[in-house]
Write a structure and sequence with these properties.
The structure holds two protein chains of two kinds. By secondary structure, chain A is an alpha+beta fold. Chain A folds into two domains: 73 residues, no CATH class; 97 residues, no CATH class. Helix content of chain A is 32%, strand content 16%. In chain A, β3 and β4 form a beta hairpin. The termini of chain A are far apart. Chain B is α+β, with helices and mostly antiparallel strands. Chain B has a single domain, classed as T-fold (Roll), CATH 3.10.520.10. The longest helix of chain B has 22 residues. Chain B is globular. The chains are: A alpha+beta, B alpha+beta. At the A-B interface, α1, α4, β5, β6 and α5 of A face β2, β4, β5, β6 and β7 of B. β6 of chain A pairs parallel with β5 of chain B, so a sheet runs across the interface.
């Protein structure tokens, strides 16, 4: 019976979400970052073992059946508040067009912590990228993440001292990386 | 012998262990030559590449070289297998096959060395890797997963044996990666996704596609038989597939490789996005 109620709740939440997003998208360009809440249906399925929670969020399991719209709105939303004017994507080929200097990106609120990077431009070329801030509130993050992906094991990353033969990671020259730099590179553009 | 060159806009390293130093140098040179052929053919920066000719309408696909036709076919196949998340047509409407060419080229480079009779070697192109045999100490090759927040650090050590390893990623939270399936314009908050697959071509194409899926990407990998993944999100939190940890334990001896161990894992062919419910 409880399962049935929960499933019914999910259907209602989803229907509500579809209605909400279609009414929004009617008068909004699709590519824009809208404020439509990203509904996470997963929290309902997991009775969280109530670790230390700083926010007094109502337990989704108990409220889902009675107040769907409320649980939609209060669902943990990891969408960050992005800097107000997303700059256009800067292709990697343009990297040589920048003024020398060190540039610091705005602090981007990642909801559970802030992210900020700095870049260094020398001889018109991007020479260094470093992280000034990144979220480190592991306990909160852990909890949020375990809700989002119940079946899979999670862990906070930690630096390893082991010596290895090779390293796998996204290359700094990849297109995705070039895109990610767009905010700071816009500051440095001639 | 170990050599690194910058080709296709990334460092490519080839290491061969063992004797025959002279022939090793020759063979490594052949591998680099192969990569520069691939670059010339598939580059989206070089005006004379076949891909650019196709993009300008100067070359029809049916008149293109066999390799180009094969890549377009493989890209089409991958698009189908990832429910459209993998697409070589970029947002400007031009063909950019680089997402599939890299892994394919590494796999072919590995075959060059294998055919030449080498047993212990690896090819690493921009962090996408396939190894063979064992390392200088006769131990299994080890691969570190780079910390997306600090490029000097590694956060995990894996022993992939002869499987392929590829990482898709971006280094900052707040990047504008749009999920092509999500009209609400959700921004993904994944910074790194490492995939272990049957070979580096397979690992690379599915890492690329799964990364575009955002948080759902790791679930996609979980359901893909023969693949494991390690995803790092913007909160510096990693999520791994159920069989991933098999690869974090060093196998005994040099020639022992992890074998398929997907018992208990859902061997359902995954098509399409994973529904959160």
């Amino acid at each position: 019976m409880k399962k049935f109620l929960l499933s019914f709740g999910l259907v209602v939440v989803f229907a509500f979400y579809v209605m909400l997003s279609s009414s929004r998208s009617a008068n909004q360009p699709l590519a824009m970052v809208s404020n439509v809440p990203i509904t996470s249906t997963v929290p309902i399925q997991i009775p969280s073992p109530s670790p230390i929670v700083s926010k007094p969020t109502a337990s989704p399991a108990t409220t889902a059946a009675t107040s769907n719209s409320v649980s939609v709105k209060s669902a943990p939303k990891s969408t960050p508040s992005i800097s107000p004017n997303p700059s256009p994507v800067v292709p990697a080929a343009n990297v040589g067009l920048y003024k020398d200097g060190t540039y610091t990106s705005p602090v981007v609120d990642a909801y559970y912590g802030n992210v900020q990077i700095a870049i260094n431009v020398s001889g018109g070329r991007l020479t260094d990228v470093s992280f000034l801030q990144y979220p480190s509130d592991r306990r909160t993050s852990q909890q949020i993440n375990s809700r989002a992906m119940p079946a899979l094991k999670s862990e906070a990353i930690a630096a390893q001292s082991a010596k290895v033969d090779m390293v796998s990671g996204a290359t700094a020259t990849s297109q995705a990386f070039a895109q990610s730099l767009s905010t700071v590179l816009a500051q440095a553009a001639n | 012998m170990k050599q690194t060159r910058i080709l296709m806009g990334m460092p490519i390293t080839v290491e061969i262990i063992g004797d025959r130093i002279d022939s090793q140098a020759l063979e490594i040179a052949r591998v680099f030559e192969y990569f520069s052929y691939v670059d010339k053919t598939f580059s989206t920066y070089k005006d004379l590449s076949e891909v650019m000719k196709i993009n300008r309408g100067e070359l029809k696909l049916e008149n293109a070289s066999q390799d180009v036709q094969q890549i377009f076919k493989l890209a089409e196949q991958t698009k189908g297998e990832t429910d459209g998340y993998f697409d070589i047509v970029n947002r400007k409407g031009i063909f950019d096959p680089s997402g599939i060419v890299k892994g394919w080229a590494i796999r072919n480079a590995v075959d060059i060395l294998r055919r030449a009779g080498y047993v212990n070697f690896y090819v690493d192109a921009g962090g996408d890797i396939q190894a063979h045999g064992s390392n200088r100490e006769g131990k299994p090759w080890s691969v570190g997963i780079k910390n997306p927040f600090n490029q000097q650090e590694i956060v995990k050590v894996i022993y992939p044996g002869e499987k392929g390893v590829a990482t898709s990623g971006t280094y900052i939270r707040g990047q504008h990666i749009y999920d092509p399936k999500d009209k609400s314009g959700e921004i993904t908050d994944i910074v790194s996704l490492t995939v272990i697959g049957p070979d580096v071509y397979e690992a690379d194409r599915f890492a690329t596609a799964a990364f575009a899926m955002g948080k759902k990407g790791i679930e996609f990998i979980e359901k893909l038989p023969g693949f494991e993944g390690y995803m790092i999100d913007a909160n510096a939190l990693a999520t791994m597939t159920t069989g991933f940890e098999v690869y974090t334990e060093r196998p005994l001896g040099g020639a022992v490789f992890p074998t398929a161990k997907h018992e208990g894992k859902i061997l359902r062919r995954q098509k399409g996005a994973v529904d959160a419910s």
